[in-house]
Design brief:
Helix content is 36%, strand content 18%. The protein is an alpha/beta fold and 294 residues long. The strands form three sheets. Strands 1-2-3-7-6 form a five-stranded mixed β-sheet. The chain has a five-stranded parallel β-sheet with strand order 5-8-11-4-12. The longest helix has 17 residues. The protein is elongated.
Length: 294
């Protein structure tokens, strides 16, 4: 008996072993940003013949810059089911492939990871923050990321071959809290697609899309702050901007008599810490001293 996938039942049958499949990522993603990264990701996933294999790109950039959103958006444009898996320092090889859980009557049930589920159904696996994983975990994926296109499950003593429509991408944060990947893994994760901070107009559009109830006054203050932060090489991201805007606008609904500039500073301190307040101009600081809200 070969591999049979019953997606409507969320199960697969691999040589008589029944495996529960992971849930698809169903949230819509809208990419508002530079189109070059979109085009590069689409190009990496192209196939020109039946024997031509898609590439396994890595999206690299600061945390919160939109790497996962980009990958989800392109996957949905291609009408491919999306499965997101989070990489951590504790991720084990078996976490990436097949896990076992003990069910009723002490029966063992096999569960496919989001990655293996994508392999079986012909979808996209987004391995988020892949460079937080150890080399041992990456080594288990080495045959999947070259022409062989399979993984071995030690737990089930089975080899799982990827569907021809399977696509893979990993996101990687550009910071100091990650592993350096060995060369044999890096050589399989190409091309490298770099994402930079968006320009101020794009940041404005992204924040307005995510926080449509934010006032223009708030967004103007916030964009000016982000511009100054970027000039000093701070890693303040658009994700930070969205959280700051949400909290400041909520504060405004409670403290209606407070000026928005003061509420923004309260939100900035709550989200990014007091250190960020040095990037507010001297003139603004002199007019509106930050003080606890009462």
């Amino acid at each position: 008996m070969s591999t049979q996938v019953h997606w409507e039942k969320r199960i697969a049958n691999i040589h008589g072993n029944i495996i529960k499949l992971s849930q698809e990522y169903n949230d819509n993603a809208v990419w508002i940003g530079h189109s070059l990264a979109q085009q590069q990701l689409r190009a990496a996933w192209l196939r020109f013949s039946k024997n031509d294999q898609p590439m396994n790109p890595r999206l690299v950039g600061k945390p919160g810059i939109g790497k996962t959103t980009l990958a989800v958006s392109v996957s949905q444009e291609l009408n491919l089911p999306v499965f997101v898996m989070q990489g951590t320092g504790d991720t084990r090889p078996e976490d990436l492939i097949i896990s076992a859980i003990l069910g009723e009557n002490q029966q063992i049930h096999y569960v496919a990871s989001p990655l293996v589920t994508a392999m079986l159904v012909g979808g996209v696996c987004i391995l988020d923050e892949g460079n937080r994983m150890s080399e041992k975990s990456w080594a288990s994926l080495a045959p999947l990321l070259d022409h062989r296109r399979y993984v071995d499950s030690i737990l089930m003593s089975e080899r799982i071959v990827a569907h021809e429509d399977f696509r893979f991408v990993t996101t990687m944060n550009d910071d100091a809290s990650v592993y350096d990947l060995p060369e044999y893994i890096q050589s399989r994760l190409n091309p490298q697609i770099l994402l930079e901070f968006p320009d101020s107009d794009t940041e404005r559009r992204i924040i307005k899309e995510a926080v449509p109830y934010a006032s223009d006054e708030l967004i103007n203050y916030l964009i000016n702050f982000l511009i100054i932060g970027h000039q000093f090489d701070e890693s303040y991201s658009v994700r930070d901007g969205i959280q700051i805007a949400k909290y400041a606008q909520r504060l405004k609904s409670i403290y209606t008599d407070k000026p928005m500039s003061e509420l923004l500073r309260c939100s900035l301190e709550a989200v990014l810490g007091a250190e960020c307040l040095k990037y507010i101009s001297d003139s603004e600081r002199n007019h509106h001293h930050l003080r606890p809200l009462k």
